[in-house]
Amino acid sequence: GQQVMQIPQYQHVQEGEDFTTYCNSSTTLSNIQWYKQRPGGHPVFLIQLVKSGEVKKQKRLTFQFGEAKKNSSLHITATQTTDVGTYFCAGPAGGSSNTGKLIFGQGTTLQVKP
Amino acid sequence: DVKVTQSSRYLVKRTGEKVFLECVQDMDHENMFWYRQDPGLGLRLIYFSYDVKMKEKGDIPEGYSVSREKKERFSLILESASTNQTSMYLCASIPGRTTYEQYFGPGTRLTVT
């Protein structure tokens, strides 16, 4: 069945270092979403990418959607302790966007050492 | 702001008990979802509902049922709780049937002993 894989599962960085998490889908996606879950919290929507090759920035966060619309990445420049949490990517179940269902990756948990 | 609330943050139940997890959203959203979250497995869809009294199975429905009698409320039922259902349960909602951002509740950490 359809799968969305994320790597790495865990990442420890020193504050100020960069961080990247990668998301790969077994099927072509119409769009991809990213969520952040702080420790003890719930997932919160960050962004949605729709176009092939799309790149979007939110301050120190850069999101990219691959040309084939099967992979995506989230890059954080100069991490801060406020970036700690688990980052999930998610794509529409079945590849299309007409059900509202999402398939989530396993998540990448980021720890930042001050 | 959309608000999704869940009845309990922490719950401890015994094996074999019937467990009800409640989720309420206040934004008149049509679609609601129940996920369980386990380390290393991400969020897995248990059931979702796209209208009152309408429901569809997700990826891991075994051992669970759901009820949606009112648009704002979506309940997850564990008919006979087992230890392998110890998990974090998250409810989410979206306005319609296309891919919108999902609004999550705070989660219920269920422990079955």
What does this structure look like?
The complex is a heterodimer of chains A (114) and B (113). In chain A, the strands form two sheets. In chain A, strands 2, 4, 5, 9, 10 and 11 form a six-stranded mixed β-sheet that branches. In chain A, strands 1-3-8-7-6 form a five-stranded antiparallel β-sheet, with no helix packed on it. Chain A is mainly beta and 114 residues long. With 113 residues, chain B is mainly β. Helix content of chain B is 0%, strand content 57%. Chain B has no helices and eleven strands. In chain B, strands 2, 4, 5, 6, 9, 10 and 11 form a seven-stranded mixed β-sheet that branches. Chain B has a four-stranded antiparallel β-sheet with strand order 1-3-8-7, with no helix packed on it. In chain B, a hairpin with a 2-residue loop joins strand 5 and strand 6. The model of chain B has no long low-confidence stretch (mean pLDDT 94). Classes of the chains: A mainly beta (114), B mainly beta (113).
Number of strands of chain A: 11
Beginning-to-end CA distance, first to last residue of chain B:
37 Å
What is the beta-strand fraction of chain A? over 45%
**Describe the biggest sheet of chain B?**
7 strands, mixed
Give unreliable regions of chain A as ranges. none
Largest interface: A-B, 26 and 26 residues
The biggest beta sheet of chain A, please?
Answer: 6 strands, mixed
State the end-to-end CA separation of chain A.
41 Å
| Secondary structure tally, helices of chain B | 0
Indicate the overall shape of chain B: globular
Give a quick set of tags describing it.
A: 114 residues; globular; B: 113 residues; mainly beta; seven-stranded mixed β-sheet; four-stranded antiparallel β-sheet; 57% strand
Secondary structure blueprint with pairings:
The complex is a heterodimer of chains A (114) and B (113).
Chain A: E1 4-7, E2 10-14, E3 19-25, E4 32-37, E5 44-49, E6 55-58, E7 61-65, E8 71-76, E9 85-92, E10 102-104, E11 108-113
Parallel strand pairs in A: 2-11
Antiparallel strand pairs in A: 1-3, 3-8, 4-5, 4-9, 6-7, 7-8, 9-10, 9-11
Chain B: E1 4-6, E2 10-13, E3 19-25, E4 31-38, E5 42-51, E6 54-57, E7 64-70, E8 73-78, E9 87-94, E10 103-104, E11 108-112
Parallel strand pairs in B: 2-11
Antiparallel strand pairs in B: 1-3, 3-8, 4-5, 4-9, 5-6, 7-8, 9-10, 9-11
